[in-house]
Amino acid sequence: MIKYIEETVNYLLEKGFENPELGIILGTGLGQLINEIEIIKEASYNHIPNFPTATVEFHKGKLIYGILEGKKVVVMQGRFHVYEGYTLQDVTYPVRIMEKLGIKALLVSNAAGAINLNFKKGELMLIDDHINLQGSSPLAFRGVELLGERFTDMSMPYDEETNRTFQSIAKKNNIVLHKGVYASVVGPQLETRAEYRMLKLIGADAVGMSTVPEIIVANHLKLKVAAVSVLTDECDPDNLEPINIEDIIANASKAEPDMITLFKELIKTL
User: Fold this and answer.
1) Member of which family (predicted)?
2) What would the mean pLDDT of 202-216 be, rounded to a whole number?
3) Residue 139: is its pLDDT beyond 70?
4) Which ranges in the chain belong to alpha helices (H)?
5) Could you say which of 90, 148, 217, 226 has the lowest number of CB atoms within 10 Å?
């Protein structure tokens, strides 16, 4: 992997991806943040050596470098998932690349279903902790100790100071921002009624199919990390209706202006 990382980083440096301060993973609900960035360089995933390629139709496939609120940023427009057939090492490979390019912090967005029925679709949830239900770890490979501490501490995976700043920004801008625990499952199928009940019992407030692998690797690399979920549906096992992907995307779009405000105002403080 070290050889692959060097090849990828050298390609991006030659492209002009120089000294970014911050990495951003644009999941569902933050795609329009691209319009706020002064783009300097971009590279399609399928042109970047050793990079996976996004296969989900509503996830783009570009790595973007530019200026946002006065900070140099490198942005993943579209992410990778285990349910696309990728390994956890594939899914998290871009985080390792962004760290080698120079980022010191990583911000992540995603779409999630609300397990906590006090949370409503169209609202946002700041991730305070997580539960990894993806069946393995992105650190479970031979030679991982050459890239960072094998037994990575996860007692505080999300940066407390950054989370407090997010909460302050939300209050100032009258944005509903819950705080809770995110459970990450493999997917791509949605959960059964029994699975939603189980998730509630083990302490999850929201469930999705991403983010946790990237957060684990960011902690492995000692990056400051924070993540926000757009709550796109309400997962009430006693009143469960068939899922509508178009409705999920519509709810993500509804919350997008608030998500963009949170991220832009936070970046000003970094």
Assistant:
1) Belongs to the PNP/MTAP phosphorylase family.
2) 98
3) yes
4) 2-15, 88-101, 160-172, 193-201, 212-220, 245-269
5) 148
